[in-house]
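Tokens for Lipid II isoglutaminyl synthase (glutamine-hydrolyzing) subunit GatD. Go.
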Amino acid sequence: MTGVIKIAYLYEDLMNTYGDSGDVKILSYLLKQRGYETQVDDVSIDTPKFNAQDYDFLFFGGGQDFEQTVVAKDLLRHSQTIADYIEAGKPMLAICGGYQLLGDYYETSEGTTIKGLGILPLHTVFKADARMIGDTEFETEWGTVKAFENHSGRTYFDDNVKLKPLGKMITGYGNNPEDGVEGMRYKGTIGSYAHGPLLKNVNLAAAIADQIISNHQARLATVQA
Ligand code: GLN
């Protein structure tokens, strides 16, 4: 039995800048090619508390500062279930604003500090003088990735042993103008500033699709046991 692959899209209605929902569409397409149907559930402001362990993949897209402020207030009710999911090494992809909210805090353009989920040891600071915008290119374990970035938040790791970058910059800024790296990897979780969507880069998309299938099979085995 293959079952249906369940994807939770966190705040789909609020966190979807520059075509980030394309990441979920590409994954659904690849999973279909591999013989799996997918169900995408929107976990948002009006939806009940969700259990991340019922899902095979979590996706969190990018958002503008205003939307991030709204989302951050609601998000904290899900912090434990998302933390447990991430610690269990299950696959998750968080882009830009979503990536920022997995960390400790985000200091916004308004000078206010949004509390993040605090799951990953990283923080983000808004710098008005130089928005990081344009095409990006970076080298990853899955080859060269080409994408687009548009953010003022600069992200810094607070633990360089626990967190690893997703890639090394060739063109563009990535996490911040100083470190020369893009995104983050921790266990099965990937964070990235790359829009475009990111998963038009097929090697990376295929690797995530395979991880989702393994996680799905493991989840089904526990449900059936
Ligand atoms: N508002 C955040 C920033 O400017 C994130 C932007 C985004 O998700 N595209 O850094």
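The domain at 4-224 is CATH 3.40.50.880 (Rossmann fold).
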